[in-house]
């Protein structure tokens, strides 16, 4: 028995519009399922946000991603060096600098994390409030439109 | 149009002399092909190569190349501070007075020597083709000889296009040669530009046949790769490529490399660098090899009037992945049935995974692109469109 593929490029009736729409629908579904609620997605979108200003759905999604990305990682990390000869020396030097500065930077970044957390909470609150107000207004407009027959002021 | 006609092209830089730019490449190629058909073509440009400094880095004078008489004129002294200050205001969407618009144009790139040359010789030319639209050189040259000026504007939907001086430029010149229907529609929206005053010409592309494995072999690339060719700068969307590819690699665990050709700095996350190949300036053959071997050609710029490199990638049999906000690039993908467009990262991930996991589909898209460009953008067809446009918009006096 031969299997019929779900999508056949070049098949009559299928064009790139259909393919793009299909892939976008898949992406939208996955976004709703939380597959992309990921700090890495929020970081990746930083230069694209300007193009998404008109999309309410995307801003809600982006805030979810941002919630994951908002806190600066202040824990210790592995210091690497690619330069072969002076690499080990540089690693020792950088580790020492990191240890010396940690008492100061830790305090700084902790405060930054608090600010970031407060800002994201405020943004989420504002977005929720605006969404609720817009929904209420839309409902009110729909009710008024129903009460006023077309063609009458 | 008679083969004995003499025409002039005016462009701020000459493509190929250390300068990379779509508009510059377009004008140079149109000029070369007009000369091939027997026209006498003067290509008037400046001594500058860098579009950041506009420093006179080439000697002034005339030289013959590719059948063209190329005249290099020095760029005038300019007040870069004033230019940048006003440019920043325009770019941020602030309203600037008309006097500032002119100050911005005057302190952009200009050449009094080039204007003086045209004051003496303009009457010798059947038409003066000039572009792109947003440079002082184009503006002042076109308005000095509006009756014989045909703009090749390379118009983008950007704040500069909304300046009142641009409305004057478009309304007073004899006509426009657009690259695509989407660009013509944009001119209609911005300037109420009548279709009768314009023609769609575009640029032709010569078919090529390259080994799709050569680039990967020569650069020891064993994993699939995506490609971007051209200027690397935020306006072209190159930081987005790096951000998306870093997220793609981390999230999917798929080893897809990123290849860049062209000029400019690459702004990439540190973790992506081991997976980036910056080939810099490459020959046309090597660029075509890189295109032919790529999984997809990425073109995330939203400000394009004509995606030459995208069409080249189609001609190489490689599908495009473009930003959904670029109506020109999306229309090219649609027309060729050879590319996909993404709104945001989730779309991008889904589309790149699709191309990666469906090589037959990827190849079928590539084949469609190759057929489309070979059919619609062959040089003889474009040359005819160019000559028809000049005949219609600048009838023989």
Structure description:
The complex is a heterodimer of chains A (153) and B (397). Chain A has 153 residues and is mostly helical. Helices cover 64% and strands 0% of the residues of chain A. In chain A, helix 3 packs antiparallel against helix 4. In chain B, helix 2 crosses helix 3 and helix 11 (308-315) crosses helix 14 (359-376). The relative contact order of chain B is 0.11. The model of chain B has no long low-confidence stretch (mean pLDDT 92). Chain B is an alpha/beta fold. Chain B is globular, with a radius of gyration of 21 Å. Chain B has 15 helices and 14 strands. Helices cover 43% and strands 16% of the residues of chain B. The longest helix of chain B is centred in the C-terminal third of the chain and has 18 residues, at 359-376. The chains are: A mainly alpha (153), B alpha/beta (397). At the A-B interface, helix 1 and helix 2 of A face helix 9, strand 14, helix 13 and helix 14 of B.
Topology readout:
The complex is a heterodimer of chains A (153) and B (397).
Chain A: H1 16-32, H2 39-44, H3 56-69, H4 87-147
Helix pairs in contact in A: 3-4
Chain B: E1 6-10, H1 22-36, E2 40-46, E3 61-65, E4 68-73, H2 80-91, H3 98-106, H4 112-121, E5 127-130, H5 136-144, E6 149-151, H6 164-172, E7 175-178, H7 181-191, E8 198-200, H8 214-218, E9 225-229, H9 238-252, E10 257-261, E11 276-280, H10 284-293, E12 296-299, H11 308-315, E13 320-323, H12 327-336, E14 339-342, H13 345-357, H14 359-376, H15 379-393
Parallel strand pairs in B: 1-2, 1-5, 2-4, 5-6, 6-7, 7-8, 9-10, 9-12, 10-11, 12-13, 13-14
Antiparallel strand pairs in B: 3-4
Helix pairs in contact in B: 2-3, 11-14
Strand content of chain A: under 5%
How do the SSEs of chain B run, as a string of H and E? Answer: EHEEEHHHEHEHEHEHEHEEHEHEHEHHH
Sheet with the most strands of chain A? none
Number of strands of chain B: 14
Specify the helix fraction band of chain B: 40-55%
Spatial strand order of the main sheet of chain B:
3-4-2-1-5-6-7-8
- Please identify the structural class of chain A as seen in this structure: mainly alpha
SSE string of chain A: HHHH
């Amino acid at each position: 028995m031969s299997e019929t593929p779900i999508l056949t490029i070049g098949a009559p009736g299928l064009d790139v519009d259909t393919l793009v729409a299909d892939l976008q629908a898949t992406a939208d579904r996955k976004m709703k399922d939380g597959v992309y609620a990921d700090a890495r997605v929020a970081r990746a979108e930083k230069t694209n946000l300007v193009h998404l200003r008109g999309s309410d759905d995307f801003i809600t999604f982006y805030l979810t991603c941002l919630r994951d990305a908002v806190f600066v990682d202040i824990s210790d990390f592995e210091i690497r060096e690619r330069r072969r000869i002076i690499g080990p020396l540089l690693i020792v030097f950088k580790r020492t600098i990191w240890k010396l500065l940690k008492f100061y930077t830790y305090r700084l970044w902790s405060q930054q994390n608090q600010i970031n957390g407060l800002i994201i909470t405020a943004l989420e609150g504002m977005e929720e409030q605006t969404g609720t107000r817009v929904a209420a207004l839309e409902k009110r407009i729909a009710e008024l439109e129903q009460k006023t027959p077309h063609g009458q002021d | 149009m008679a083969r004995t006609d003499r025409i002039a092209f005016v462009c701020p830089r000459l493509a190929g002399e250390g300068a990379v730019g779509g508009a510059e490449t377009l004008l140079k190629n149109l000029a070369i092909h007009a000369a091939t058909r027997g026209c006498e073509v003067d290509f008037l440009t400046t001594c500058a190569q860098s579009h950041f400094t506009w420093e006179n880095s080439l000697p002034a004078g005339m030289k013959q190349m590719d059948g063209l008489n190329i005249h290099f004129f020095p760029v005038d002294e300019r007040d870069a501070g004033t230019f940048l200050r006003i440019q920043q205001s325009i770019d941020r969407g602030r309203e600037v007075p008309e006097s500032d618009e002119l100050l911005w144009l005057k302190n952009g790139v200009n050449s009094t020597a080039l204007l003086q040359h045209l004051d003496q010789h303009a009457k010798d030319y059947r038409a003066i083709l000039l572009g792109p639209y947003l440079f002082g050189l184009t503006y002042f040259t076109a308005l000095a000889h509006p009756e014989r000026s045909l703009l090749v504007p390379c118009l983008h939907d950007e704040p500069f296009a909304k300046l009142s001086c641009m409305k004057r430029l478009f309304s007073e010149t004899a006509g426009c040669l657009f690259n695509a229907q989407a660009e013509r529609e944009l001119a209609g929206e911005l300037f109420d530009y009548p279709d009768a005053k314009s023609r769609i010409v575009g640029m032709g592309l010569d078919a090529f046949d390259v080994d799709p494995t050569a680039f990967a072999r020569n650069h020891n690339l064993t994993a699939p790769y995506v490609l971007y060719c051209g200027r690397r700068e935020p306006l072209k969307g190159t930081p987005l490529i790096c951000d998306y590819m870093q997220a793609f690699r981390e999230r999917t665990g798929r080893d897809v490399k990123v290849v860049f050709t062209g000029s400019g700095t690459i702004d990439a996350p540190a973790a992506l660098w081991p997976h980036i190949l910056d080939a810099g300036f490459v020959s046309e053959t090597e660029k075509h090899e890189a295109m032919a071997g790529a999984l997809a050609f990425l073109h995330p710029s939203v400000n394009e009037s004509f995606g030459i490199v995208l069409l080249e990638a189609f001609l190489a049999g490689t599908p495009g992945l473009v930003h959904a906000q670029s109506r020109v690039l999306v229309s090219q993908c649609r027309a060729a049935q050879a590319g996909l467009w993404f709104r945001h990262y989730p779309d991008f991930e889904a589309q790149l995974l699709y191309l990666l996991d469906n090589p037959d589909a990827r190849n079928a898209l590539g084949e469609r692109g190759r057929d489309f460009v070979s059919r619609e953008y062959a040089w003889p067809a474009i040359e005819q469109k160019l000559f028809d446009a000049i005949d219609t918009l600048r009838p023989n006096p």
